[in-house]
Amino acid sequence: MNIINKLSLLATMFRMLGVGRLSNVADNGDLASHVGEYEENHHDKSITYRSDRQDDSELILKLFNNPYNKLSREDFDFATADSHRPFEMPDFELSEIQTLDRKTHFSTFDPLHRELAAKLIKIFMRQRDLKELVSMSGYLRDEVHPDLFNYALSITLMHRKDTSNLQVPLLATVMPHKFIDAKILRKVKEAIKNGTYDSNNPIFMTPQQTTSKDEHLLHYFREDIGVSTHHWQWHLLHPYRLQVHNFGEIIPPKNRRGELFYFMHQQVLARYHFERYSNGLKRTADLRFEEHKPIPEPYYAKIERLPSIPYASREKNTVLRTFKYPPNETVTIKDIQLWGQRILDSIRQGTVLYENGTIITPKNEEYIDILGNMVEACTASPNLGYYGSLHNKGHAGIAQCHGPKGVGVMYENSCSMRDPVFYRWHGFVNWIFNRHKERLPPYTVEQLGFDGVKIESVTVHTQDETVEENEFLTHWEQSFIDVSNGLNIPLSNGTEKYSRSSPVLISYRHLQHRPFTYTIIVNSDREVTGTVRIFLAPAYDPDLGENFQFHNQRNVFIELDKFVVQLKASTNDILRHSAESTLTVTTDFRQPLGKTLNAPKFNKLRGCGWPEYLLIPKGTPEGLASKLFVMISDWENGDKVSGSAPTAELQAENPLCGVTEGLYPYKRPMGFPFDRRARDDVETLDDFIHRGSGKRRERFPNMYVVDTKIRFDGSR
After folding, report:
1. How many CB atoms lie within 10 A of CB 714?
2. Total-model pTM
3. Which strands make up the sheet holding 571-577, listed edge to edge?
4. What are the helix (H) ranges across 83-159?
5. Out of 40-44, 252-256, 331-335, 654-658, which region has the weakest mean confidence (pLDDT)?
6. Which residues are the active-site residues?
7. Could you report the per-residue pLDDT of 363-378, keeping only the tens digit for each?
8. Of the N and C termini of the chain, which has fewer Cβ atoms inside 10 Å?
């Protein structure tokens, strides 16, 4: 069968299936004039696909490999035989997606880029099975912007049921220029090209100063690869606004998405301040958009937005100013202020104005979700035209305040957490959320208690004989990232063995803690299911020079774990290992491409979760005083959502990341019980865990606080 007959047959099949037509093929069926062009431009990529040589899942994951190089037959097995599987090649959609120049910086903060991503995801999502998805993505891989392709295919694999067992390659391994100092990557590439690279002697990545001296003390936190990966993965699960004109939402918002936006970023902010206290620093000031007010913190990016194209840097005392927002919007400081004021008015009035003019008064438990979508703002915003896009355009304004050329790291989710101004801006965003939370009534005794359940004791045992009881030990640790799939080195001059088969490792330092176990002794007067929440907070407030008052301390509690437990009608010994935390994820930056994942914890969360090695803040050499808070609440009558059961599947859900489908696994508000102000008589944490007064004052039996220390051993 010659090529014209093949194309004619495929075109007929496409029309019968109603899936469009071949790119640039005339409707009258005159294919002859197109054949030469097709063979010339696509000789290495037939529209036929044969899957007998490589597994489909392995093939599709290899599409992420070396994204700025053209795809080769060694990466992807395009068929050259008659065996084929038809797929859609929509020419009008492809031409739109190709409008993004490959040298342009792709960003999800850009509405035009988001629409292109939505169109590409739409194409991927409507492929009928994995084989068609492999064919379509294989064809489009070199036709569109590499960053756009990575983003769209990553979201697709996360949200299609037939790819739920695949580990989406971590961005840091295929686009390391967004995570690793450009000088280090150049050094690695030169060593490979010169034939001097030794995989047994990886290059060490030394922390480079990117900001002020004080902020550099937190380099291990802000510039950590795992922290940035968590932020990127979270926004893959919960994209901003992925809509196609006259089509609608591509990835519908997930259950309690707006509340998740609030809670995840609130926890990041609390952890950042915990690290500041660990390094002798005070709380950072919130950043508000004000005319002519400078940003004292500089940021000198050492990473690149595209290979060999660096992010723009921001000098000390740069002033916020009017900026351009695509496609043709001019955003002023007053615009940001107006949106903020309208959101605060909504909080004060307890009402929400929708686009159709309807005004509603949400219930307390519903408003935080609406508010989160309103502040960010995502597709679920009730009224984008009125409440604006405070968070997103704030990021864009900061990313452009240095001047008209280029953008700073605040313009991309994969690296914005590196900039110290990220925490100042999110401090202001969190301040807005707190205006709502402080208007809510304190939790009642009934809401906080759990009749018949009493925690008798809580102890922490670290797996180190030199560590005392109720002491956490942190230290430095060296790990490796394999960048062989992201170096984009042409296969020549003897470099093939490095880019094809051997890992290319870079060594980097990160914080780590010694593994530990919680021992929680609980008495229950009946068989019952409980939700265990474990939080940690610093005991001392350096801003006021005294032990924390509860109204401030509640905002710096970090959640360490949350899980469901079956209590028997007697004494219960609950042993919980630190590695079991539902909020963390074990991230291996050496995971090879083209593999399905067998680790249930990583697979269930699609890679989203706080880095396990950063579960415990750094602390101090002498031991940073902290408070460990443990609470058991009624799961059946407080946390249970419709249709859920205390199963292993429930235990695998990450409270920071939510779910890909269905309902969020815990009904109570995120951050409970510290998300609201306390009773008027509560001044300290000790007051909070007690009820009654005078002789009738007693501890809530289902709560327990332990004085702990976090000791940092810099010699390890």
Report:
1. 9
2. 0.89
3. 453-462, 516-524, 571-577
4. 91-97, 111-125, 130-140, 146-159
5. 40-44
6. 376
7. 988 999 999 999 998 8
8. N
